[in-house]
Amino acid sequence: MKIRVAAVGVTGYSGLELMKVILRHPAMECAAVMASETTGERPLGEIHPQLRGLSNLVCTPQDPARLASLDVDTAFLCTPNEVSYELAPKLLAHGIRVVDFSGSFRLRDAISYPSWYGFKHDEPDLLRQAVYGLAEWNGKAIAGARLVANPGCYPTSVLLPLLPLVKADLVAPGSDIICDSKSGVTGAGRGARLDVLFAEVSENFRPYNPVAHRHAPEICQELEWDLSNFTFVPHLLPVNRGILSTMYLAFQRAVSSQELQGEYERRYRSRPFVRVLGATRLPELRAVKDSNFCDIAWRLTHNGTRAVIFSAIDNLVKGAAGQAVQNFNLMHGLDESVALLEGEPVAIHG
Asked: What single-letter DSSP state applies at residue 281?
């Protein structure tokens, strides 16, 4: 018997990527797709022309009670922070498991939300229940979770390469970590905004929200690193999708490339979506486009006492929908790679 799922907030780019995976997932049955009241009732193929002929589903206004009546087991929330904050408790109260794409349950400290996310968080119990959905590191906890906080796209690109080095106590305590990340325009969402118009982005390249981006505390929380010793600067690339992150750090002692290779292989040898390129190759966006892979490489400097670490992911897949399905697979005792190594969707739902 297939697991009944729902996608809420399906009108955005991440929602489209999620539906592509749901439609080809052998263990999922999509019971409903929903969006805000302003979307009304519209065929999914009208919202996303790429899905014409692949689904007969009709998108309806988001309604937790209706999802409960449809016997939905798991709901994916591709919704803004404040919307997820309102919807998740209602869905959980109906016994529906939640994988949330927003930042509403990523930070463990409720006090952090007004300054970083702009709203007051009055659900400290849910923050304690929420499991941070970085599958390569939190798989056991994700398997038993009712609420999974899907990591941000930038944090995914930073945490996967840095965690092995920090956990191995290779990075000098109290030292500065500098992270320079570049993202495609889909990371800004599908809403109409002047700064992401084609004429503004094409043949252009710029930083935004430097040193004050809301993903910085999320990264430091998972690294257990002092925010005052972490500098994060995101940039907007004139491409549709992908994130390339470059990180600069200092080690406690001189290390060799072979030592780094061994540490990464130890941590990720059994993980299907992390590809360790090592010290001879470099990540690039086209190599991870439309995939759930994270490619990691490095270059040592200063006689092995410092390093530049590189990573690349697709912000809509490993940075959003693919990672969410990877978490779903773990939550339901499936191989984490199910439906994430195949091609285009082939199923008809609805």
From this structure: -
Alpha-helix runs per DSSP H in the chain: 13-22, 44-47, 64-69, 81-93, 113-117, 124-129, 135-143, 153-167, 198-201, 215-223, 257-268, 285-288, 322-331
CATH of domain 3-149+317-331: 3.40.50.720
Domain ranges of the chain: 3-149+317-331, 153-313
Looking at this protein, which amino acid is placed at residue 115?
S
Q: Alpha-carbon distance 333 to 310, whole Å?
A: 32
Do residues 35 and 190 lie in contact, with contact meaning Cβ atoms separated by under 8 Å? no
- Read off the tokens for 17: 């990527």
Would you say residue 344 has pLDDT above 70?
Answer: no
Catalytic residues: 153
CA distance 298 to 190: 33
Q: Is the pLDDT of residue 147 over 80?
A: yes
pLDDT, tens digit, for every residue of 262-302? 999 999 999 999 999 999 999 999 999 999 999 999 999 99
Identify whether the C-beta of residue 279 lies closer than 8 Å to the C-beta of residue 298: yes
Assign domain 153-313 to a CATH class: alpha beta
Euclidean distance between the first and final Cα of the chain, in Å?
A: 16
Measured CA to CA in angstroms, residue 78 lies from 8, 149, 267 at distances of 6, 11, 30
- Per-residue pLDDT tens digits for 45-74: 999 999 999 999 999 999 999 999 999 999
Specify the DSSP element, H or E, that contains 232: strand 230-236
Would you report the helix, strand and coil content of the chain in percent, each value rounded to 5? 40, 25, 40
Q: How far is CA 205 from CA 131, 200, 208, 293, 294, in A?
A: 35, 10, 10, 25, 23
350 confidence band (pLDDT: 50, 70, 90) = low
pTM here is 0.94
